[in-house]
Design goal:
It is a single chain. The two termini are 43 Å apart. The chain folds into two domains: 143 residues, Lyase, Ornithine Decarboxylase, Chain A, domain 1 (Beta Barrel); 254 residues, TIM Barrel, CATH 3.20.20. Strands 1, 11, 12, 13, 14, 15, 16, 17 and 18 form a nine-stranded mixed β-sheet that branches. By secondary structure, it is α/β, with parallel strands linked by helices. β8, α8 and β9 form a beta-alpha-beta unit. The chain is elongated and about 75 Å long. Helix content is 32%, strand content 25%. Bound molecules: pyridoxal-5'-phosphate. The site of pyridoxal-5'-phosphate has 15 residues, from α11.
Length: 409
């Protein structure tokens, strides 16, 4: 987490408070460590970055430069992938509702994973209307990998829906299956990954035996790097990239041991939070300190909406930079935001000193933060990339007019 007072002051002077700070060097290092763990355990591995997690184009472009594919779940995200320079054959289009650009992408040979039978019916029609073009699709499977809930995504493999899907595909001569996709949220154990690959291979053996598939896509859902303060809240001895990679590799390598490289499927995963969470910090400033009936409230110039998914589940790791000479003792303090919501609490149980003008740095805010910030009460702040001492603006602060532009005055 960023803790260099000079860099923090520079960032705030140049771009104002609050602000997101992307740590470019550390992200690249982490990307390479992740990719290498996967690649050394399955030689035909490819990484497809989950845009929804954080589609800041600067980051998407960096992923492209590092060799990653793009995983998108809407026309907007597909548009971003094209804007940063992706060709269709390096984009994976997922999601329960795809837009018109999904059709365009399919006709251009992109990888699109079908979520349900209605979507498939529309694609069968598209294939029939374009009978001279060979269209290849992936199927998202709904399987039980031991999670504690029934997922709503994908085509159920237990109800006959999967067989129906295969029957529908056969009604169009120019439509074929080229991949299998599984993603189940909230399942980050190594066992969940072993189960994913086993389930995928079971389906492949049962329905595609002898047929060469281009890819198996296992989605994402791994624990990424994080500060100890946060890791401890998820439990002891969290799995590392290598633990996941070895578990998947053991199963997939055994299954394809007699295949040549060319005949093996590409293995994709789609890391999002896994890749980005640890590499964006958020700097906020203490605006006021209130003591009300024995409770200490520290009001920050931001809101809970700035901080992303993890802040809703756990207590984010923080750094405090003391700028004010007059420090007050805070006991069991709550960091609260600029909204008028009582539940706009960003940190509970702070014990230490603070003064107005001090900075609070929240770590691990890379996922579902800037992309999930509503214009509630105030627009969003700027984002910069930090590379050593050098700072670069990668998202401007949103203006009031930017918010108003889509309303009719
Ligand atoms: C289809 C799909 N792929 C990838 C991801 C990203 O997973 P993670 O953030 O756990 O790396 C998600 C997140 O929900 C997803 O739905």
């Amino acid at each position: 987490m960023i803790n260099n007072k000079q860099t923090i002051n520079n960032a705030l002077q140049l771009y104002g408070s609050p602000i997101y700070v992307f740590d470019k060097r550390a992200f690249i290092e982490n990307y390479r460590a992740f990719f290498s763990a996967m690649k050394t355990n399955y030689e035909k591995y490819e990484l497809s970055y989950s845009y929804k997690t954080n589609y800041a184009p600067y980051i998407c472009k960096l992923v492209k430069e590092l060799g990653g594919y793009a995983e998108v779940v809407s026309d907007m995200e597909y548009y971003i992938a094209k804007k940063v320079g992706y060709e269709d054959d390096h984009i994976i289009y997922n999601g329960p509702i795809k837009g018109k650009l999904g059709n365009e992408m399919l006709l251009n040979g992109g990888m699109l994973n079908v979520d349900n039978l209605d979507e498939l019916t529309r694609i069968v029609d598209l294939a029939k209307q374009n009978s001279k073009i060979n269209i290849k699709i992936g199927l998202r499977l709904n399987v039980d990998i031991g999670q504690s809930f029934v997922s709503r995504f994908g085509i159920d493999v237990t109800s006959g829906d999967f067989e129906k899907a295969l029957g529908l595909i056969q009604t169009a001569d120019n439509l074929d299956v080229q991949g299998i996709h599984i993603h189940v949220g909230q399942s980050r154990t190594v066992m969940a990954w072993t189960n994913r690959i086993k389930e995928a291979l079971k389906i492949i053996d049962k329905y595609f035996d002898g047929k060469k598939l281009k890819y198996i896509d296992l989605g994402s859902g791994m624990f990424g790097e994080m500060d100890d303060e946060l890791a401890i809240q998820f439990g002891k001895d969290l799995p590392k990239y290598l633990d996941y990679a070895q578990a998947i590799g053991m199963v997939i390598n055994e299954h394809y041991k007699d295949y040549t490289y060319d005949n093996k499927p590409i293995l994709f995963t789609e890391p999002g939070t896994t890749l980005i969470n640890h590499y964006i910090d958020f700097i906020a400033t203490v605006s006021s300190i209130k003591h009300i009936r024995g409770k200490d409230f520290v009001v920050l110039d931001c809101s809970k909406h700035n901080l992303g998914e993890i802040s809703y589940l756990k207590k984010l790791p923080i750094n405090v930079i003391h700028n004010n000479k007059n420090q007050e003792q805070i006991v069991d303090g709550e960091f609260v935001g600029y909204t008028c919501l009582e539940h706009d609490k960003m940190y509970i149980g702070y014990n230490g000193t603070l003064g107005t003008g001090d900075n609070i740095i929240f770590g691990n805010v890379g996922g579902y933060s800037n992309v999930d910030k509503p214009p509630f009460i105030l627009p969003n702040c700027a984002m910069i990339s930090m590379e050593g001492e050098s700072l670069e603006l990668i998202k401007e602060k949103e203006s009031f007019d930017y918010i108003l532009d889509t309303y009719v005055l």
